[in-house]
Structure formats: C-alpha cells, structure tokens
Amino acid sequence: MSTIERARVVITCPGRNFVTLIIETSDGVRGVGDATLNGRELAVASYLQDHVIPCLIGRDPHRIEDIWQFLYRGAYWRRGPVTMSAIAAVDMALWDIKGKVAGLPLYQLLGGASRQGVMVYGHANGSTVAETVEAALEYKTQGYKAIRLQSGVPGLASTYGVSKDRYFYEPADADLPTENVWSTEKYLRSVPDLFAAARDALSWDVHLLHDVHHRLTPIEAARLGKDLEPYRPFWMEDAVVADNQESFRLVRQHTTTPLAVGEIFNSIWDAKLLIQEQLIDYIRATAVHAGGITHLRRIAAFADMFNVRTGCHGATDLSPISMAAALHFDLSVPNFGIQEYMRHTEETDAVFPHAYTFANGAMHPGEALGLGVDVNEELAARYEYKRAYLPVNRLEDGTMYNW
Ligand code: GCO
Ligand code: MG
C-alpha cells in the first residue's frame, strides 16, 4: 500500500505571499495544495506544520474523504478560515496525487467535462468612470465575455478594487494595515453612473459585474440593486456582510439584480440559509478557503437543488494551485455559473508552472495529470515571506467600518 511519506510547507513571496503544502507518497508521487489566507498566512502554515502534518504521515493518500473527515471532525474545533484552509490544502494535494496515479486530469475524476470551457470575468478598474470604461473596452477586445467594473468614488481618496497598476491589484499592500476612508453616500451616488457609461460604451453583449465588498446595509443594498436593474448586471457581489444570513431576505425582496456572496465563507454552514431560501443566485466559496475540492463539491451539490450557481472566488491572493483546482471543479460541476480570473504576475506564474489556459473569454484546466500545476521550490526559495496586511476602513468621522 502506498502511504504518505513526507509533507512540507513552502512559503514564498513572488510579489505577494503564498503558502503551499507538498505531500509525497512512498511511491514517489507528489501532490500540491494551496493554503494561502491573505494577511494571516503564517497561522495556516503553523496549523499545517505543527498540527496536521504529524497526523498525515503513514496514511493511505487515496482515502481522501476519510482524511477530510479525520481533520474536520477529529480536530474537535470545527470550521473557521485557518482550519478550513489547512484542510483544503491537504485535500487539494490528495486529489492531485489521485489524478496522477490514475493517469487523468482531475476534472475527469470529478465526472468529466460538462462544458468546453469555463467563462471567466476580468477586472476592469480606474480612478474615474472614463478610465474604468476604457479598461473594460480593453478586456472586451481581449475576448472577455464578462467584466467586473470598479471605479474610484468622487470625494474618496481610495476605494476597494481600484489599483495603481490596472492589471495587478494587490490590496494587501503594507507592513501594517493601511487606513482607508469610506462614505456610503458618495459610493451610492457613483455606481449607477458607472454602469450607465459602461452600457453605453460596451453595449449589451457582455456581462457586467460589480463587487460592493460588504459595505452596505440591507436597505442600502436593496436601493443599489434597484438602481442597477436597468443595466442588467450579471451580479452584485457581497452587497452586505453575510454574518447574518437573514440580512439577504430584505435585499432579495426589493431587487431583481442577481446576488453573489461567499468568498469568505469556509463551510456549507455559512451558506445554508442563503441557499435553501434562494436568497442568492451565485455562491462564491472556493476550494482553498472552504475545505478543498471535497467540501466545495458538497456546497455546489446542495446549491444545485435551489438553482444557485457557482461563481468561485479567484483573486490573486489565491495561488495558481487554487486557480487550477477551481478550473477542474468548474469544468465538471453541473451548476457552474462563472469563474473570477485575475491574472497573476509573471513572477508568480514562474514559481507555479501550470497547464491551464485562457482563450476567447474562457479558461480550461488543461490535460496534465492531477491538478496540472506545481511549485518550483528552488525559485520559491528566492522570495522570502514579507508581512502584508489588507487595509482597514473608517467612516469619514473615524468610526471603524468593514473593508
Ligand atoms: C474579489 C475579492 C478580493 C478580496 C481579496 C482579499 O472579489 O476578488 O473581493 O479582491 O478583497 O481576495 O484577500
Ligand atoms: Mg469580492
């Protein structure tokens, strides 16, 4: 019987921090899993090194479900982003190993392709409406069928989703958290103008998306959803904080703008009510922060019963290993909706060589065995971990707010 012989954690910072778990079997097969939790990377690294790896050695790597249950139930302390990211890394690495041993790309083990490719959305942003629309036009020229629009808000010095470098937005930008200033009134005035200008310039043959990033109350979100209805957005994301899932009832009652949520969810329990009451249209949980491919499939299967489709988180703080995992999942899952795609930098792509490709607005995980992605450890070792925090938000009068 093949056993897990060795496992180690690689921390690297090719422009931003990534944590990777490598598992090696007694047969010499190697699997990789992403364990990156933006701004809290070392907590997951320690959880893996100090508490998970000792339990893995000697186990049968093919018993993916049993190992998942062992790590989830066996910890006694359930859920939470640190635990679930660590479990996810193990799960991804084991699926990678299983694919390699089977001689198949992972999507074949998940039931095979349900579609030719996976529609992705790119991020258009700019400090003004005109700049954002110009960036969106570029994405359209590059073949994107779906584009997220984020623009600077007049009167605010900086806003979520707007970068200095248009293509590479990395909000975890400082050794200690940067403080941003937020005004809901200014923001709410600006978004409908952005969508009006975008529809004018881009026409109707492209999907438009927007991320509110948890900044509205339910009634404010209801109003924004209504204001955007004439422009038919594909979705309004993270309209309100979802700690209280019931908040979405109020938003839902007032607008037909589709709702997406879940990038910070780490288990099915974060979304149960949202899904079963059909309060959302897209669930954004993704492999790395929601317990791996094993748990993500469970969330998607539950969502499918209630007409909720998937829309996996795919920001650049998720490593190319997560991107590969998401693409295999997306290609196979029946209720796929869309996949977020922010390009990684060349430095990151070099550390994580991968088989996935982009063409005509869609991505494909490729035909390499397993996940089809690896970590170049020698190169990774050249980029030392650098502490970096996400920003925090304060209202104009200094009150702490959601970022
Ligand atoms: C998105 C997300 C990201 C997050 C980031 C935090 O929709 O892509 O909101 O931009 O802010 O992943 O780590
Ligand atoms: Mg988001």
TrEMBL record:
<feature type="domain" description="Mandelate racemase/muconate lactonizing enzyme C-terminal">
    <location>
        <begin position="129"/>
        <end position="258"/>
    </location>
</feature>
<keyword id="KW-0479">Metal-binding</keyword>
<dbReference type="InterPro" id="IPR013342">
    <property type="entry name" value="Mandelate_racemase_C"/>
</dbReference>
<comment type="pathway">
    <text>Carbohydrate metabolism; pentose and glucuronate interconversion.</text>
</comment>
<dbReference type="InterPro" id="IPR034589">
    <property type="entry name" value="D-mannonate_dehydratase-like"/>
</dbReference>
<dbReference type="InterPro" id="IPR029017">
    <property type="entry name" value="Enolase-like_N"/>
</dbReference>
<comment type="similarity">
    <text>Belongs to the mandelate racemase/muconate lactonizing enzyme family. GalD subfamily.</text>
</comment>
<dbReference type="InterPro" id="IPR029065">
    <property type="entry name" value="Enolase_C-like"/>
</dbReference>
<dbReference type="InterPro" id="IPR013341">
    <property type="entry name" value="Mandelate_racemase_N_dom"/>
</dbReference>
<protein>
    <recommendedName>
        <fullName>mannonate dehydratase</fullName>
        <ecNumber>4.2.1.8</ecNumber>
    </recommendedName>
</protein>
<dbReference type="InterPro" id="IPR018110">
    <property type="entry name" value="Mandel_Rmase/mucon_lact_enz_CS"/>
</dbReference>
<dbReference type="Pfam" id="PF02746">
    <property type="entry name" value="MR_MLE_N"/>
</dbReference>
<dbReference type="InterPro" id="IPR034593">
    <property type="entry name" value="DgoD-like"/>
</dbReference>
<dbReference type="InterPro" id="IPR036849">
    <property type="entry name" value="Enolase-like_C_sf"/>
</dbReference>
<dbReference type="Pfam" id="PF13378">
    <property type="entry name" value="MR_MLE_C"/>
</dbReference>
<comment type="function">
    <text>Catalyzes the dehydration of D-mannonate. Has no detectable activity with a panel of 70 other acid sugars (in vitro).</text>
</comment>
<keyword id="KW-0460">Magnesium</keyword>
<keyword id="KW-0456">Lyase</keyword>
<keyword id="KW-0119">Carbohydrate metabolism</keyword>
<dbReference type="InterPro" id="IPR034587">
    <property type="entry name" value="MAND"/>
</dbReference>
